[in-house]
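Subject: complex prediction, re-run

Hi both,

The earlier run crashed halfway through, so I resubmitted it with identical inputs.
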Amino acid sequence: MSSDGLDNLTRLLGSVPYFARLDAATLEVVARGAFRRRFAKGQMIFLEGETCAGLWVVEKGRVRLLRLSTEGREQVVKLLGPGEFFNEVAVLDGGPNPVSAMTAMESILWVIERKTMLELLERYPALAAGVIENLASRARHLLALVEDLSLRTVRARLAKLLLAQAEGGSEAPRRLTQQEMAAQVGTVREMVSRVLRGFEEEGLIRFDRHRLIVVDREGLEKEAKV
Amino acid sequence: METRMDEGERRTPEIDGGLCTGCGDCVAACPVGALAVRELRATFIHPEYCRYCGECEELCAVGAISRPFEVSFAEKA
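This time it finished cleanly. Structure:
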């Protein structure tokens, strides 16, 4: 790896919560054990059930972590962007990949092999502390997802998703298709289309070409709490 | 900001050329004649006509057409 590439990766790793506690010299050690990979839009990075290659870090682009049902329906577990990482569970327990990963757009990723990560965890307790903290935060996220799927209706889950998207929106609005919304709330596109039409008829949202505008925020918040 | 709005006005649904079979259902469904089949693939020949209504997306049997949306809150008056 060139010294520029190493510097860039060291900076990128420094912005990853896992590695934020490490000093510059240690970050460089981590960076030296990483490989850069470029993926096209919609390319599968790895499949659920395959042997884990290592820890992945997103430099550029977006990655969907997803599970596929036997009927082929996608449930997006998480959408990741630059500075975020994934597949740490398989790195830590040595099991197969718990989810599949696919790029949502052209992406540049780094992979740090499992063996390298385990050596680093042993040598640097600060890294281990970061890993534990992050796993706990992921566990919270998954608990919230379990609650959503078991207790909320599709209407409520979609209302919640729209509110979260609008909250995050103004700086770099993330564009979502109905298919992506369906995958995130665990249903099919036709259902999303029907529910969105219902929201529109009830005056909760309106469409302005490619913009979906939340007109009645309170009303939508009520829907999300059902 | 202006740039993004300008780009937005020209936006049309996305067609996945890998999925599109060129069946022409979307051409028949489009109420404004924005679509045509060219070289066995659906394409927007008149993107300026497109109203982003979603008829093509609804009709496409193979899910090749999708409309990405930016979600935001209405600005307060």
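The radius of gyration of chain A is 19 Å.

- K.
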